[in-house]
Design goal:
Helices cover 25% and strands 23% of the residues. The protein has 370 residues and is α/β, with parallel strands linked by helices. α4 packs across α5. It binds dephospho coenzyme A and zinc ion (ZN) (2 copies).
């Protein structure tokens, strides 16, 4: 058992507290990782607010982490102590029907219907002050040490800077893959990205790398525009600057609507606006954002009848264990720049400050260091 620090959420709506926790050794098929860095993602905030489906307290949040394998459980062969890894919120078991399908990435080892508050054997590896603490998405990266199933880590190049490539664990891969894999953006095409948080800006990067000639970035917070331009956006617009609906504005700007649109906010109105912003016939709209559990949106089926395609994406469509090492290489070869997405770096002891920055719209990504 290792005693170390972790940020524990005791109840919904309360700040995190830095506690000393006990981390049990990994059981069969599990690995214990010394966390080096972890990004703060909007989904961690959903959990803290009590809005994450099946999220249970007390819990150690965090799911955008990197670290070094400290020890391995029985039967683990994929990694050994000392290996650098990215922790994955979508595993790749390699055996299920979707892992065996080259087009798919939704590993059934963790279909989202089954809560991941505990390890696969339904027990926890964390205790604090005599109480059992829940895991989050099997990751719980806001701890100096965590335990995770072997199928949910990706082994990466020893040269990878862990304080940067942690973004590949969730935000960057999600937005970038939405453009590259899910939409399959073509050179010379037009794109619109709704929402310029860490994930939306990563979609902008994906559109740019894919060779889009026009990338329209949409956000109500104009402070995000400078960064969007730096990353490749050609036009930045705020819906608040127009009387008519933003989908009409985009349709006029592009004659018939964009080739590809991305919803990276998670509201009903922007989901409909993004769909209506892509052209009526060959337009493809990718939904990245998520509505509150159980919420529905009304849409006019005519939007689809004329030929539009409406798609979802999970972690950008990547089979993450295979993709993570390649994404790391692309980053090291400077195919894209993760550093521009990192606006703040804080020690884990200042985790609440990191959430305040996110809620105030002042950060893109904050990296916590351990
Ligand atoms: N119109 C335009 N822009 C808006 C509007 C609006 N009505 N409302 C908010 N925005 C802008 C905000 O100003 C902000 O800049 C941006 O939208 C949202 O950014 P963030 O920083 O809050 O969020 P991200 O980029 O970290 O995450 C966005 C998601 C949509 C991915 C996230 O909230 C979500 O729904 N996650 C679940 C789905 C998923 O796949 N997540 C990845 C794994 S966790
Ligand atoms: Zn996330
Ligand atoms: Zn699988």
């Amino acid at each position: 058992v290792i005693r170390c620090r972790a940020a524990v959420a005791w109840a919904a709506g309360k700040p995190l507290s830095i506690e000393e926790v006990e981390v049990a050794p990994p059981k069969a098929g599990e690995v214990r990782v010394k966390i080096v860095a972890s990004g703060i993602c909007r989904t961690d905030d959903h959990l803290l607010q009590g809005c994450f489906p099946h999220g249970e307290f007390p819990v150690i949040p965090g799911h955008e982490g990197t670290g070094i394998v400290e020890s391995i459980g029985e039967g683990v062969t994929y990694v050994k102590p000392g290996d650098k890894v990215i922790l994955l919120c979508l595993p790749q078991c390699g055996k299920c029907i979707f892992c065996l399908n080259p087009e798919a990435n939704y590993c059934l080892k963790t279909h989202f219907a089954s809560p991941q508050n505990l390890m696969p054997d339904k027990t926890s590896r964390f205790t604090c002050k005599g109480k059992q603490i829940n895991h989050f998405l099997w990751n719980s990266t806001f701890a100096e040490y965590t335990v995770i199933p072997e199928c949910a880590v990706a082994k990466i190049d020893a040269a990878a800077p862990l304080d940067k490539v942690c973004l590949l664990g969730c935000g960057f891969s999600t937005g970038y893959g939405a453009a590259i894999n899910t939409a399959k953006v073509k050179p010379g095409s037009t794109c619109a990205v709704f929402g310029l948080g860490g994930v939306g800006l990563s979609a902008v990067v994906g559109c740019k790398v894919a060779g889009a000639s026009r990338i329209i970035a949409v956000d109500i917070n104009k402070d995000k525009f400078a960064k969007a331009k730096e990353l490749g956006a050609t036009d930045c617009i705020s819906p608040r600057d127009f009387k008519k609906p933003i989908q009409e504005v985009i349709t006029e700007m592009t004659a018939h609507g964009v080739d590809y649109s991305f919803e990276v906010i998670g509201t009903a109105d922007t989901m409909i606006a993004a769909l209506a912003s892509c052209n009526a016939n060959t337009g493809i709209c990718v939904m990245v954002g998520e509505l509150d559990a159980g919420a529905l949106i009304p849409i006019d089926p005519m939007l689809l009848l004329t030929g539009r395609t409406w798609k979802g994406t999970l972690l950008g469509g990547w089979k993450m264990r295979d993709a993570a090492p390649k994404l790391v290489s692309s980053y090291l070869e400077k195919k894209f720049n993760l550093d521009l997405l990192i606006t703040h770096t804080l020690p884990i002891t200042k985790v609440n400050e990191g959430f305040d920055l996110l809620r105030a719209g002042k950060s893109i990504r904050t990296i916590l260091l351990f």
